[in-house]
Write a structure and sequence with these properties.
The protein is mainly α. The protein folds into two domains: about 55 residues, no CATH class; about 70 residues, no CATH class. It is built from six helices and no strands. Helix 1 runs antiparallel to helix 2, helix 4 packs across helix 6 and helix 5 crosses helix 6. The longest helix is centred in the C-terminal third of the chain and has 28 residues. It is elongated and about 65 Å long.
Length: about 140
């Protein structure tokens, strides 16, 4: 949870300090209030975008480094784990429910959608663990 809060704070501050001064420069050092307002609105937009992506099972760190699993042995293991969960009945109930919605009620596609969702969730968890491990002792 601390990582998510830190991530969102970083997004907001970075956006504000990038957009605000840019507007200030583009307006020829006029409209200081406008640069603050636009910077603040941009920060809030970035915050809401990060909340949206976190609800989709992704974090900023996960979005940046998510390609490290594509077509790799690690990704294959994640798919195998998701399939094993389906076969054993040891599924994540919320994802199973979301899968039927994504499959538009088609039970034949439900397992496929579940596996996609579960692999994305496992990648997100792995990325968060990697992030925490890489920042220990800093």
């Amino acid at each position: 949870m601390k990582i998510v809060i830190l991530e969102r704070a970083l997004i907001m501050v970075a956006t504000y300090f990038i957009v605000g001064p840019t507007v200030w420069e583009l307006t020829g050092h006029n409209y200081r209030g406008a640069s603050h307002i636009i910077g603040a609105v941009s920060s809030l937009t970035a915050l809401f975008a990060s909340i949206y992506y976190s609800k989709q099972g992704l974090s900023l760190y996960g979005l940046i480094f998510s390609n490290k699993y594509e077509s790799s042995e690690e990704e294959n293991k994640l798919y195998a784990q998701a399939e094993q969960e389906c076969e054993s009945g040891d599924i994540v109930k919320g994802l199973w429910s979301k899968a039927i919605v994504k499959a538009k009620g088609n039970e034949d596609l439900r397992k496929i959608e579940y596996m996609k969702l579960r692999v994305a969730q496992l990648k997100h968890q792995k990325n968060d663990k990697d992030f925490v491990q890489s920042n220990k002792g800093r």
